[in-house]
């Protein structure tokens, strides 16, 4: 992963920022992005795509990443904004905002995925970037840990959905809770249409039976 990032270094490219997001798929909560820049040749054993790590492994790696980074930042886009502009645009907005919050301007941005956001810094989309790039992989860990912590805090206000465990993803437990209690203000309404339609149809069938 380090060699992948180093392959982009040139006379005019000395600082590379990796950026990635966490939380595109959940039914509730924000999408969170992170950006990070490391000194050249930085190595941290275990850094890779956050989805391939356990929660405990991510928590253990986070302080190592932050301690070795030249600079890092995070940004979140709310559930309401996701509903308004769609999850792709919200993800790009979160990554773009995270880049803008870096205290050091990078010479090049490596963006996880096949899309890039506008800006005056050169950027490259890297498909499966969190598995190829050290800086993107590290950003994915920062974003994932940050978002998980947000969902754990929010779970205290809405314990019926058990977000401390499912983090807002569409687990069977979460979907059943939505059907029983209905959605709350932090759910992404555009993600719930199929679930709510199925629930309405079920309630209608039960009324006919009664």
* Average pLDDT metric: 92
The sequence of SSEs as H and E is: HEEHEHHEEHHHHH
Helical segment tally? 9
CATH topology: Nucleotidyltransferase, domain 5
Number of strands: 5
Spans of at least 5 consecutive residues with low confidence:
200-210
Shape: elongated
What percentage of residues falls in helices of 4 or more residues? 40-55%
Number of domains: 1
Euclidean distance between termini CA atoms? 61 Å
Compute the gyration radius: what is it? 19 Å
- Full CATH superfamily name: Ribonuclease H-like superfamily/Ribonuclease H
User: Helix/strand-derived class?
Assistant: alpha/beta
CATH class: Alpha Beta
Write the layout of secondary structure elements.
Elements: H1 2-6, E1 16-22, E2 31-37, H2 55-68, E3 71-77, H3 79-85, H4 87-100, E4 108-112, E5 123-126, H5 129-132, H6 134-155, H7 163-166, H8 172-181, H9 193-209
Parallel strand pairs: 1-4, 4-5
Antiparallel strand pairs: 1-2, 2-3
Helix pairs in contact: 2-6, 3-4
